[in-house]
Design a protein that fits this description.
Elements: H1 14-36, H2 42-48, H3 55-67, H4 71-81, H5 83-100, H6 107-118, H7 120-135, H8 138-169, H9 173-193, H10 207-219, H11 221-248
Helix pairs in contact: 1-7, 1-8, 1-9, 3-6, 3-11, 4-5, 4-7, 5-6, 5-7, 5-9, 7-8
C-alpha cells in the first residue's frame, strides 16, 4: 500500500496533522454509540410508542441496513467530487437525522429514521479510511487505522453500559442530542483540518464502468471469502447487542 503524505512534515504542523484523524475518530465513535447506546433504551422507546418488543432488534437492523446502503457509491463519488465535501455531507446528514428522531410520532417513523442515521456509517469506511490512507505515510496509516478499529471494539462494550445508566436518569431522546453534539464537534474539526486527497476530481462517474469494476471484485474469491468471514465473525456480537435488552431486562 502506498500512502501519499499531503501534510507538511515540519513540527509546526504536527497538531493540525493529527487533528484530522482525531476528529474522524470522534465522528466514528458518535455513529457507533448511536447504534449501541440506544439499545438499552429501546424498551422505553417501544413503551412510549406503544409498540411490541419485536421492534427492539428491528431498530438495530434498520441502522445496520442503512450502513450498507451507499457503500458502493460513496467511494467512487468522493474520487470525483472530493473527499472533503462527501465526508462533511455525511456528518451533517448524521446530525440532522439524529435531531429528526425527536420529531418521530410513531415506531415506524422512528425505525425509518434509524435507517437514515445508519447511512452515516457508509462515509467512514468508503471515504474516511481512504482519506487517512492518502494523507499519511504507511506507518502512521497503520497506527491510525488500528485506533479506529479499537473504537469499533470499544463502542459495543461502552455503549450499552452508558445507555443503561442513561435511561435511569434521563429521557432516551437525550441520547440523540448527545450523538448530534459529538458529531457537530467532529464536523467543525473536519471542516478545519481535513485535507482534500482525491486525485480524480472532475472525472465523470460512469455507472457502466462502476458495474464492471464491481463484477471484477465479486469474481475475486479470496476477497469475497475474507469479507464474508469478517461479517460472520461479527454476527454473534451484533445479535447479542440487538437482543440483550429483551434477554436481560
Amino acid at each position: 500500500m502506498v500512502c501519499i503524505t499531503v501534510y507538511n512534515q515540519v513540527s509546526g504542523w504536527d497538531v493540525r496533522r493529527y487533528f484530522f484523524p482525531l476528529c474522524l475518530v470522534l465522528y466514528e465513535f458518535s455513529t457507533y454509540i448511536g447504534n449501541d447506546m440506544i439499545q438499552p433504551g429501546m424498551l422505553a422507546v417501544v413503551e412510549q410508542y406503544q409498540a411490541g418488543l419485536d421492534w427492539v432488534p428491528t431498530s438495530m437492523t434498520a441502522y445496520l441496513a442503512g450502513g450498507m446502503f451507499l457503500q458502493w457509491l460513496l467511494g467512487p463519488l468522493s474520487d470525483r467530487i472530493g473527499r472533503r465535501p462527501v465526508m462533511l455531507a455525511g456528518v451533517v446528514w448524521f446530525i440532522v437525522t439524529c435531531l429528526a428522531t425527536l420529531l418521530a410520532k410513531n415506531i415506524e417513523q422512528f425505525t425509518f429514521l434509524r435507517f437514515l442515521q445508519g447511512i452515516s456509517l457508509c462515509f467512514i469506511g468508503a471515504v474516511g479510511y481512504a482519506a487517512i490512507q492518502e494523507s499519511f505515510e504507511e506507518a502512521v496509516c497503520i497506527k491510525i487505522t488500528a485506533l479506529m478499529a479499537n473504537v469499533a471494539l470499544i463502542a459495543p462494550l461502552l455503549g450499552p453500559l452508558v445507555g443503561a445508566a442513561w435511561v435511569h436518569v434521563l429521557p432516551w431522546e437525550g441520547m440523540f442530542i448527545l450523538f448530534a453534539a459529538l458529531a457537530a464537534i467532529a464536523f467543525f474539526g473536519l471542516q478545519r483540518a481535513m485535507p482534500e486527497t482525491a486525485t480524480r476530481r472532475g472525472e465523470t462517474l460512469s455507472f457502466k464502468a462502476l458495474g464492471r469494476d464491481y463484477r471484477l471484485v465479486i469474481k475475486n474469491r479470496r476477497f469475497v471469502a475474507g469479507a464474508l468471514a469478517l461479517g460472520f465473525v461479527s454476527l454473534p456480537l451484533l445479535a447479542w447487542i440487538a437482543q440483550s435488552p429483551i434477554i436481560i431486562i
